[in-house]
Write a structure and sequence with these properties.
Distance between the termini: 45 Å
Shape: globular
Largest sheet: none
Number of domains: 1
Strand content: under 5%
Helix content: over 70%
Structural class: mainly alpha
Amino acid sequence: MAGETLPPAVKPAASDEHPLRELAGLFLKLGTIAFGGPAAHIAMMEDELVRRRRWMTHAEFLDLLAVTNLIPGPNSTEMAIHIGHRRAGWPGLLVAGVCFIAPAILIVTLLAWAYVRFSALPVAEGLLRGVTPVVVAIIAQALWRLGQAVFKTWLVGAVALIAAGANFLGVGELLVLAGAGVFMLLVWGVRNRVHGRSTPGMLVVVPPCVPLPALAFAGGTAGPALWPIFLFFLKVGSVLYGSGYVLIAFLRADLVERWGWITESQLLDAVAVGQVTPGPLFTTATFIGYLLAGPLGAAVATGGIFLPAFVFVAASAPFIPRLRRSAAFSAILDGLNAGSLALMAVVTLTLARTVVADWRSLLVAGLSAVLLYYRVSSTWLIVGGALAGTILW
């Protein structure tokens, strides 16, 4: 990968009469079936974009994933936004991002309405038990395919193995990624010195990951008016790195303990809704916003937490081709790609240990893996898993 050049944002081909319509249809579908968290979402995107539609190569997909992991916010949503930009420029950026999160926002809003109306969560347990083993199989296959594009040398494989071990032992995602990238940069520098080549200084371009000072606090006051709700979730979307589950710590610290806007029980119910619905876990904000201020609260909370993702992707997207053309940054991206796959592997292992717990889940996961090998669409597998869950459980 080190010598490969990433082309600029993909322009719609002459045969693509309706690139925005294609993006809208694809990401509305993915947003509707994307259960299982960011790793599963990214695996489904890889299946659709690289394997089936061939809109980009594995190497290009991995470079987008590496840059996505460097900026705060919901990784799978930012990946969708990046893909939209590459496919259809700035309009594609908006269409892909909005269409990916729209189904989850609608579903969560309806669940929030039911929760407020009936003080209960309508959860289809059997359906979810059938879907999650399918998700494990989808992620595992995506890891295999992406790994073939990344692990071209023993060194990159070793970096990925060390990164996975570090994350499994509790080292944070950002530190794992930074360590993998810095290590590959050091190796590049040592090789240049050994071969007598100079290592010119690099101009490091860092996306605006640090929010404005005005966003450093949420403006919490005595009551959850719309403006404080928006500012709080804007702050969270601007600074939250790593897994979406880190979101829970942010919400508990301020909304429960500091301001008392919601109870501990309401927070747990909101997180449960984010987990059992498709799309990004960040739609937990939609649920909480509805609890605080009804439909308008849901709208401003959703806008606040997702707005930074669009801004960060728009700021970082133009630099990706330049990063890959630079030998130094190409080495860094190789390390980041290895670290990204290592993080996905740890998530997959953890999820598999939890989900594949009896003969029924093992049967669904195994059958899904076989069908994936024969190129059955992940969409149909999700539907099949839901039906199997309702029957077996």
